[in-house]
Amino acid sequence: MSNIHSTAIVSLKAKIGENVTVAPFAIVQDDVEIGDGTYIGPNVVVYDGARIGKNVKIYQGASIAHRPQDLKYKDEKTYLEIGDETVIHEFAALHRGTTATGITKIGKKCLLMAYTHVAHDCRIGDNCILANGVQVAGHVEIDDFAIIGGLTPIHQFVKIGKHVMVGGGLRVGKDVPPYIMAAGEPIRYGGLNIVGLRRRGFSNEDIEALKQAYTIIYNSGLNFSQAKEKIISSTIYENLKVKEVVDFINKSSRGIIK
Known about the structure:
There is one protein chain. By secondary structure, the protein is of the alpha/beta class. It folds into two domains: 3-139, 3 Solenoid (UDP N-Acetylglucosamine Acyltransferase, domain 1), CATH 2.160.10; 197-251, Udp N-acetylglucosamine O-acyltransferase, C-terminal domain (Udp N-acetylglucosamine O-acyltransferase, Domain 2), CATH 1.20.1180. The protein contains four helices and 27 strands. It has an eleven-stranded mixed sheet. It has an eight-stranded parallel sheet with strand order 2-5-8-11-14-17-20-23, with no helix packed on it. A hairpin with a 4-residue loop joins strand 26 (180-183) and strand 27 (188-192). The chain starts with a strand and ends in a 7-residue tail after the last helix.
């Protein structure tokens, strides 16, 4: 049985799971699915196209699955998906996709702090943290376990790799490869994210191989293409994590940070 406050407006067409709480003055539109145990806070608006997982917490004033801020969008049927156990704090604004991909996806066990914005057609992995005021433009991809510091704007189509830490207040205009820290203005490579990797159980062998790979990429005097070829021809390329770094560079469309 769910707990829906008498002042909330919840469409009878919405699919509401068990033990869902909908707080005062919240609005839930027709084409919405909300999983078991989820909390919808006061004054939250959940628009058509929202697909919210189990045990999600959405706090006051958040806007979920509103129409994209894209002039090409003409009210096509698109979606926003939020994974299980994700927490979305007050006044976050999360937009559904456009016909380009049809969906915006936010993974499981993420934390989106107050005033974050995730635009249309984004992909955010599992266990990511977006600090207060992070602004994510359309078509951005953020991989698992990435942490983005507060007040950081991320340019459209940027890719941010897994286990990355981006400092607060930085403008991210190029791709950030996996396992590193990004810092400085303009944003640049700030070393391997060693503390984060150790906390998540990475082996000494993996960390050492990644150190060597990023030394070649950023401190050898080679351009990125030459560095990539040197890595591929070396023994560290046998390491799966190093292969992921090379794959990320190969798929980069905006180029990686300097």
